[in-house]
Design a protein that fits this description.
Layout lengths: L1 H16 L3 E16 L10 E15 L2 E13 L6 E16 L2 E13 L9 E12 L4 E10 L12 E13 L1
Antiparallel strand pairs: 1-2, 1-8, 2-3, 3-4, 4-5, 5-6, 6-7, 7-8
InterPro entries: Beta-barrel_OMP_2, OMP/PagP_B-barrel
Protein name: PorT family protein
Organism: Aestuariibaculum marinum
Length: 174
């Protein structure tokens, strides 16, 4: 009996909570670079690339929401050895600043894909700040800045660098 009541209560709470959930996709342009602590051991030019992903926007009130995402992002620097492609998962807290403007902050974890045994760590931790402008009911444009908290190189490598990234893109809410 307890299991049945718990199941009913859980389903009812999900139903009530899910009325303020929207799903969407976003994509755009990346401008990324590596922030070395010392002089880089190779040429360190920025890398221009792309990102794409999906999200859910869980509104707690008219001015505050939780937005978990998953995205692919090609980052790092221009040199092939410094290309870093990630599957990332930021979890945003977004705040409404005006009718069409929202600000968000998020911790982000990234899993490196595509390369193995390249002297780079497989996980990256970073912080993200975002500004989003609502164009229409379902279309928005956003700009984000990401700064890496962790060194991208393996512990046995004597170099230390953090990933930085600017994303400019558009999104669509269903």
């Amino acid at each position: 009996m307890k299991k049945i009541l718990l199941t009913i209560a859980l389903c009812a709470s999900f139903y009530g909570f899910s009325q303020d959930v929207k799903f969407g996709v976003r994509a755009g342009y990346n401008i990324s670079n590596l922030d070395f602590d010392d002089t880089p051991f190779m040429e360190n030019k920025h890398r221009n690339s792309f990102y794409f992903g999906a999200f859910s926007d869980i509104a707690f009130s008219k001015g505050f929401s939780l937005v978990p995402e998953i995205q692919f992002s090609a980052e790092g620097a221009k040199a092939e050895e410094l290309n870093l492609d990630y599957i990332q998962m930021p979890i945003f807290l977004k705040f409404r600043l005006a009718e069409k403007l929202r600000f968000g902050v998020a911790p982000q974890v990234g899993l490196k894909v595509h390369k193995e045994e390249d002297m780079m760590k497989n996980f990256a931790y970073s912080g993200v700040a975002a500004l989003e402008y609502k164009i229409s009911y379902s279309v928005f444009a956003d700009v984000r800045y990401t700064y890496g908290f962790s060194n991208i190189f393996d512990d046995y490598v004597s170099a230390e660098a953090k990933n930085t990234n600017i994303q400019i893109g558009v999104g669509f809410k269903f």
